[in-house]
Task: structure prediction
Amino acid sequence: MATNRKGSFQDLNALFVFGACSVLLIHILGFFIEAQTEYPWNNDIEALAIILLRFGRSLFIFATGMLLFYWYQQKQMDWSAFWRKRWHVIVLPYAIWTAIYTVFKLQTLDPVKLLPQLMDSLLTGSSFYHLYYIPLYLQLNLLFFLCKRLFERHLRFPLLACLFFLQIGVYLVYHYLFVNPLFPGVDWADNPLLQMIQHSYVYGQNYAYMYVFHFALGAYAGLHVEQWRNWVRRWHVPIGLVAAVTGLWIAARYLQGEATYEESLNIFHPLYFLYTTSFLAAFYPLSSFLGKLPQVSSWLSLLAKHNMAIYLVHPLILFLLESHVIFRLSWSTPVLITAMFVITPPLCIFLYEHTLISYWTRRGGPKRQKRRQLVMKTHNA
Result:
């Protein structure tokens, strides 16, 4: 294991930033699609942007797998320290913001009404808009805990190919059970097993088994960084063509009426899976290149560091803008979209940092005095 990894890996910063931007833009455009009467614009452009930008979670899952296996490969793990860090950095901020959203939604501090909704939101990530990625991220960390040694020993290209086709197989099974059912007469409420199968589809986006391949692809990239870099550089043109063709195919199916808007949003369709995977691999060389540029690497690193802030807080900022601000402005819809996109990240970062426990403990605690330099008298010995 290399001893100089810490702080030196910049490949994923642009990918994190781009993923966060895609999530933010999807949620902004989603509001304007629902409010076409008040904010008219080109519905097809807005819809296609939302459809083709729905790869953010797969980018994050790939990056999560890559970073976990890159930093910790062949390392003797202190699992208690590993989980303590996630408790302080992930779980506590998530719990704080889930509580804020729950109070905001229910407009009450009555614990009888508040606690059941709070516990449900914490477990499912359903608070306000949705924060389901945090419970999903913790599941991925549990998968890392369970599979670390197995992946380090056996994760090679053949196993990765098997997981690729297995993931497509899972999507096909769900497609022919629920989207285009081969057995339309099934009563899914008939018994607990059928109910569980239906639940696994309806709430599939909340569970790690729907993303195993992209997590494993990230693990493979983290365990074999140079091979992965060389592979995506060598094949970036054909991979980019696959991404372009599948993206155009998805767009054409929507524009020609072969798939509805709701059906086109399904990222668990095999076609969308190919689009997401090829886009990820084609984008990686650019992300790696940008991470090495002195002019932008520090800027990308800073923005990537604030991904958690943007993800947790942007629902509140967008809700306040949509409810109390933009209807007072006479700007065109594209200008409103741009303004909301630009103003939301700094507001998210500001609010997030001011709700951190560490911020208030530092602020309220005694100021740390400078340590006096220790001078050892040797009496000329």
Residues 79-106 form the longest helix (28 residues). DSSP finds 17 helices and no strands in the chain.
